[in-house]
Amino acid sequence: MNILVCNCGSSSLKYRFLTMPEEDEIASGEAQRIGPVTSESARIVHREGDRDTVFSMDLPTHQKAFHEILKLLAKKGKRPDALGHRVAHGGRLFEQPAVITPTVFEALQQVRDLAPLHNPVAIDLIEECQTRYASLPQVAVFDTAFHTTIPEHARQYALPSDLVQELNIRKYGFHGTSHRYVVEEAAKIAGIPMAKFNAVSCHLGSGGASLCAISNGRSIENTMGYTPIQGLVMSTRCGDLDPAIVLKLLALYSGDMDRIEDILNRRSGVLGLSGASADIRDILGDWDAATSRDGRFQKTLQIYLWRIRKYIGAYLTLASPVQAIIFTDTIGENVSLVRSVVCANQKFFGVCIDEKRNRELEQLPGDISQDGSPVRILVVATNEELAIARQVFKTLTLNN
């Protein structure tokens, strides 16, 4: 079975075309910088075998990116037999993968707004595929499933209990598919059984980002909460915020919820701080211009890194004794400066980074910790798409 997995980020669409159950990769790639908010043009990086080809083009929407990806596959005579979709937030309606049917699609609309930057683009792509490729079976795989092991005392917000129960308000956690995959890989590298592995997983993407505390192979905390807006400073999301600020915005904008949601999810984070780009790589790339912008670039980077360091310290305590810190996704895998600053001055926790290994890292997975460091610092390429393909194949096989 040839399965095309679509992983919609807020500003990207990663894809992987695999033959299952052999797990042979036919092609893979990523549509990057979708939308008009970065200083560089959008592109698709398409890989077949060991060859990467870059196609620069206008990619205003995820649907447009998907059609361009299908065109690239069709040129080689390749067609999928099934589609798998990463859906960020399943709420309490979805805790397992689901085959897309009219009933399931209707239920997806009920969780659409729980992850404003991810669920809408994923659900809209599912709808597009239903319309244009109706013969292809589709399966939705939910990012929140891995975090069902977060204990109740960590999951519940300190709101009136009756309100919490009525509205199903709780911490759900996100990036679960990625955290699960890289933690399993890191445990193998460390030679520790998953059931005894303690780690802090850092999923630092070009759009969204979260940290996850792992105890005995299970998620016990995640920086994201009821929605993916909580936690770290992200590309356009503010992360942690005093709720009273939202009340102030409500008063300022006469209760215009759509406007406030747009501010918090689409105009804040790196974009809001820098006033120039939603991509932290742009800030790093134009570092020399920081002083000419009244220090906005420098301040943006400081705030971005401070938030990560704060949570790293907390999670090293929660998951103690931690055996590894894991960096993954676009920023975590590729930006050595971020890894360096995040791990600096952490010897108290047993975190000792080797700066030379960090700077010169080329192949993944890689260990950038010093020899003898009590906590290993691992850089592991995430493969959410393979993890999703496994679940898609299993789900469709069981249903047939």
From TrEMBL:
Its cofactor is Mg(2+); Mn(2+). InterPro entries: Ac/propionate_kinase (IPR004372), Aliphatic_acid_kin_short-chain (IPR000890), ATPase_NBD (IPR043129). GO terms for biological process: acetate metabolic process; acetyl-CoA biosynthetic process. Mg(2+). Can also accept Mn(2+). It is found in: Cytoplasm. The record marks H175, R237 as: Transition state stabilizer. One of its GO terms (cellular component) is cytoplasm. Belongs to the acetokinase family. Catalyzes the formation of acetyl phosphate from acetate and ATP. Can also catalyze the reverse reaction. This is Acetate kinase. The gene is ackA.
